Amino acid sequence: MKAVGYHENLPISKVGALREVDVDRPEPGEHDLLVLVRATSVNPVDIKTRLGKPASPEAPRILGWDASGEVVAMGAAVKGFEIGDEVWYAGDITRPGSDAEFQCVDARIAAKKPESLSHVEAAAMPLTSLTAWECLFDRLGYDEEPSAHNARTPLLLINGAGGLGSMVLQCCTFAGIPVTATASRTSSREWCQKLGAAEVIGHEEIGEVADGTFPRIVCAHDTDAYFEEMARLVAPQGWVCAVASTKQKHDIQPLMAKSAGFVWELMFTRSMYHTDDMDRQGEILRRVAELVEGGVMQTTLTEELSGLSAATFTRAHERVETGSMIGKLVVGLA
Hints:
Oligomer: single chain
Number of helices: 10
Shape: globular
Order of helices and strands: EEEHEEEEEHHHEHEHEEHEEHHEHE
Largest sheet: 7 strands, mixed
CATH topology of the largest domain: Quinone Oxidoreductase, Chain A, domain 1
Radius of gyration: 20 Å
Strand content: 15-25%
Helix content: 25-40%
Distance between the termini: 14 Å
Number of domains: 2
């Protein structure tokens, strides 16, 4: 089958950074769905993997961890799905990705996509929906429905207009969490306001916010750049959740006097380690689908490309690497 991947770690400006490759069509394991991929999104994790994970001409690495498609086969242990079902999922970073004609994904981390969304609209959402949901409800202790606890526990969201920030804002809106988002451009500010931010401040304004203002903080951007400010801004007994890996060492001592906590969120943890609650991700995607169908949540698709080709995905990587995306970029494959 045809796929797009890489042989060596190259900047996207280099010829051959991404290549079209011919690989065997995967065979589903006992828990797997075999999916005909209709659309896939490009995320920062694709960039980091292309630049950092080894590959070779004999073993090219296929990228892509956001997809929507159609089930064409399944393993014997799969329950709740049928051939022909339209599904969405973020996948497993330890397995070949969705920049391909077909992909195998564990059924426990997939769900039926919202019927009201096209495949392209749907593919914008799984990875960021899962990450946002896990940040807020699994890591930071918010309730999954509006509650007094949510209402009295405001959140600072750093980088509100990106793919992840866009989903955090929507989760906060339906769960009744007051959220202050950071965004500097006019278009980014308007996007955050549209998605429900109670307040939007510029990145440069963070330094003006009083110490200990926020009981919860989600950093959807550069952890290194904001670590010291987050340690200052988090309230006593509060929590900070970050998603971007660090290149620097940081002093956590400032968190001690506040009895404040720092926690990581990696959407791939459950599938990487086959945790006992791995099926939680399927449950989250089913819940998000219900919210979409109910008009409570919406796709974050803002840019679209077409075609399973190295040229198309090179353009997509170039765009994501600018760091100026609002919402998500999706590539339609069929």
